[in-house]
Amino acid sequence: MTLCYDDTDVKSYFKRRFFMKLGFIGCGNMANAIIGGILRSGLYLPEEIIGSGPSREGRERTKQNHGINMTDSNALCRERGGDCF
Questions:
Q1: Which residues of the chain are modeled with pLDDT < 50?
Q2: Residue 83 is inside which H or E element, if any?
Q3: What is the reported pLDDT for 13?
Q4: The pTM is what?
């Protein structure tokens, strides 16, 4: 059995699954609201998003709420995040 996809579907799939990454420097209330909306929309998976924050409590809360990767390093977030906010 052969499955056929049009070119747009294939590009969209690979772009979504393998190439697009997001980073959020500073994961306060605004970033958490944006991350929640992005995840609910299905544009990105939690493992495709990284965030940074100065407080351990804030990082843990964001990780628990959204399941994204968190770090205390803005540089690491920028390096791994692709498009950063």
A1: 1-6, 18-20
A2: strand 83-84
A3: 55
A4: 0.73
Instruction: Check: CB of residue 31 under 8 Å from CB of residue 58.
Output: no
Are the beta carbons of 81 and 23 closer than 8 angstroms?
Answer: yes
Nearest to 84 by CA among 51, 62, 56, 60: 51
Pairing of the two strands 22-25 and 83-84? parallel
Do residues 24 and 70 lie in contact, with contact meaning Cβ atoms separated by under 8 Å? Answer: no
Max Cα–Cα distance, the chain, nearest Å: 53
Give the pLDDT confidence score for residue 8 in this predicted structure: 54
Q: Is 50 buried (19+), middle (13-18) or exposed (0-12) by CB count in 10 A? A: buried
* CA dist., res. 25 & res. 52, Å (int): 5
Q: At 22, which helix (H) or strand (E)? A: strand 22-25
